[in-house]
Each structure stands twice: as C-alpha cells, then as structure tokens.
Amino acid sequence: MTRALNKLTAATLKAKPAGKYSDGGGLWFVKRGDGGAQWVLRVTVHGRRREMGLGRFPSVTLKAARLQAEKWRALGAAGLDPIKERERERREAERRLYRLDDIAKDAFESRKAELKGDGKAGRWFSPLELHVLPKLGKVPVGDLDQRDIRDTLAPIWHTKADTARKAMNRLSICLKHAAALGLEVDLQATEKAKALLGKQRHKAQHVPALPWQEVPDFYQSLAEPTLTHLALRLLILTGVRSRPLRFMRLDQIDGDIWTIPAEGMKGRVNATTDFRVPLSQEALQVIELAKPFARDGYLFPSVRKGVISDATMARLMERRGMEARPHGFRTSLRTWLAEATNAPHEVAETCLGHVTGGAVERAYRRTDYIGQRRMLMERWAAHVGMEERCIAKIIPMN
Predict the structure, then answer these.
(1) Which uninterrupted H or E stretch holds 100?
(2) Which PANTHER family match (predicted)?
(3) Which residues, other chains included, contact 56 with Cβ-Cβ below 8 Å and sequence gap of 6+?
(4) Number of Cβ within a 10 Å radius of residue 53
(5) pLDDT digits over 139-159, tens only?
(6) CA pair distance 100, 269, nearest whole angstrom
(7) Rounded to whole angstroms, how far apart are CA atoms 344 and 114?
C-alpha cells in the first residue's frame, strides 16, 4: 500500500506537460495546457465517486496536498462526504469571523431608516454600546449563548430594569440579523437568558412632574428669549412630547394648527395618521419669538447642527434644583384637565395624543376633537399665563 502512494516528486512537477498525474490514493495532479495546475482528490463515499479540488499549484505544494488528501480520505472512510464536511468547516470558520460588535453596528445601520430622530442619533444603539458590547463585543456571534447574556446583564437586570430590557431586545434583533446573514446563531439565546435571570423586581418609576398649581410660577420664570426658555414654554403650552417639539418645523404650522407627522408620534396605532395640535394665542406668540432662531426649517436648532438635544431642557430644570422633568408637564396638563375641567375622557386623552377605545370604536369615531381641544388649550394657556387664578373652579365645556 505504501508503494501505491507518493508517486510524484516535487522536483518534477513544474516540468510535466499538460495531463493528469496520479500521486496515489486518489490524489491527482492536473496540468493544463496554459501551464496552470491544480490538485484534485477522488474519493468514493456511499458508492458515489466524488472529486474535490485541493487548491492550485504551486500555492498548494505537493506536501500540503498530501496532508489534505490524507485528512479527507479518512473522513470518506468514516462514511462522511469530504466536500460537505469542508463546506461545513468553511461556514464554521466564517461564523467565527463575525464578532458581535460588527453585527450590532450592521444591524443598527440596517434599521436606521425605520428609527426616529433620536434613534438614528444613537439612542437605539446606546443600551448595547454601554452594557453589552464592552463585555461581549469581541465574541463571535455564533458562540453567544444564554449564559454569556445572563452574566452580562445580571448586574443591571433588577436595578436598571428598563435599560436591561432594551439591551436584551436589541441583542435579540442582532441575533436575528446575524441569522439573516446566513450565520448559525441561537435565536432563543435571549429568551433562555431571561429564564435564567428571572422576573425583574424593579418597579417602573414615573417621570417626576410639577403639580399643575405650580406650573404658572415656573412658566413665568421662563422670561428670557433664549431657545431653551422658548422651547420649554411651548412644551408646556402644547402638552406634546419632547421629540416632536424639538423637531418642530415651520412648514408644519398652518394658522393655529401644528401638524405632527405620524412617524413623529410615539404610540400611535395608525402610523399613517398625522396628529393635529391646536395652538393657543400664547403658543403662537412663543413661536414668533423663536422664529429668528430657526435654521434649515427647524424652529429649535442646536448650536452646531440638527436640533436641540433631549437633555437641554432637563438640564435647565436640574440647575434650578427641581425634581420635575420636561416630560412631566404632560402629567401636569392631564391632571389639570381631570381636576379643573369637565373635559370628557376621550377629549382629555386626545389632548396628549393618546389613543383611546378599541379598534372598532376608533373605526367609527373619526374625529380628533380639534374644536374642543382648541378651547381647552386656550384655557390651559390662560392658566399657565396667570390670567386664570381660580384654580379649584370647574371649567364647563360649552
């Protein structure tokens, strides 16, 4: 058997004319007419003869070709298809080349088109960047399992429950992205990790809000014609969330109506429906004061580019030693509507852009109560502007 192998010698390979030359054991040296050459291994598996290329000569030497042939012949003798096994090894090696940080960045780029402003700016990515990638970023995504994820998120699973939940969600998306790329990953790893971590004990904390009775004094303190003061005043007057206000465009205003595009509204069931906000006379005056700051169509631009950040207004309140935050003014408005007016529930909820009722009810109720809301927002403006001081009085709806 030994004499049937190793028939060729390295010294004579280059000089051989075009043709096929056996080295024994199914290994062949194939020389082409143009001078190029390659190695081919013939092996029989399950009664079928298979041919697999082992590489070009001289990049693959005679010695290297023999080592490969020995490996693949052994697998063939064990009943395994060498070609399929090589493909499996190639996929395995490729899988190990993709690290989690590469997959995470690619997944983020792929999702940017469907993310809102802050998400595009990096808020979607930050839970991964801060709490996952420092520990697991260099790990091949195919090697991730539930124990890795559990150990990474355990320190914040109960103490920073919302952040941990977001990180887990983003990680699940990354694994699905990797699977879509053809990589072998455990798509159930995050669910298994949740089972290992257990139910979160952390209770959600509401954003601190200023009592509606104290809003007028704070509103009156925003007397400077700065961008931050004006943004806070308009935030209070309209009851909207921070994002649509910060991304407010002049072309969204038509008379005393500000139309927020559907994609700018959080929690809207019908993503194709824009949201109309009635602007009080006070709100229109604030907008006029802000217009000189406008740039690129945005009413509240940042100093350098884009719009003011989410933290700009919050920092002003922090510097004043206040626990309340800008988002809390929505609570102030909603409580005022409940305690100082007799506005119907669905009208009050619509003032904040909330969706009320079931799908069938909404299908028949095709109104946004703009007339009633306009009257309420004028009264709210009168309240925060200190024109209306009878705070305990119930304001009738006409």
Answers:
(1) helix 100-111
(2) PROPHAGE INTEGRASE, PROPHAGE INTEGRASE INTS-RELATED
(3) 36, 37, 38, 39
(4) 13
(5) 989 889 999 999 999 999 998
(6) 33
(7) 35
Compute and round to an integer the Cα radius of gyration of the chain: 34
Give the Cα separation of 163 and 158 in Å (integer).
10
Name the strand (E) or helix (H) holding 192: helix 189-197
Q: Would you say how long the chain is, in residues?
A: 398
Does position 364 have pLDDT exceeding 80, yes or no?
no
CA angle 221-231-326, nearest 5°?
75
> At a CB cut-off of 8 Å and minimum separation 6, what does 357 contact?
346, 365
> Hey, what amino acid is at 197?
L
So what's the pLDDT on residue 393?
39
Task: Enter the tokens of residue 339.
Answer: 């305690």
49's tokens: 């003869």
What would the pLDDT profile of 236-257 be if each residue is shown by its tens digit?
A: 999 999 999 999 999 999 999 9
- Output the six-digit token pair for 190: 């995050």
Distance of CA 149 to the CA centre of its chain: 18
* Cα distances (angstroms) measured from residue 114 to each of 97, 109, 354: 28, 10, 21
In the chain the domains, ranked by start, together with CATH numbers, are 2-96 (3.30.160.390), 98-197 (1.10.150.130), 215-384 (1.10.443.10)
Preceding peptide of 278 cis, ω within 30°: no
Q: 210 is written with which tokens? A: 């200023």
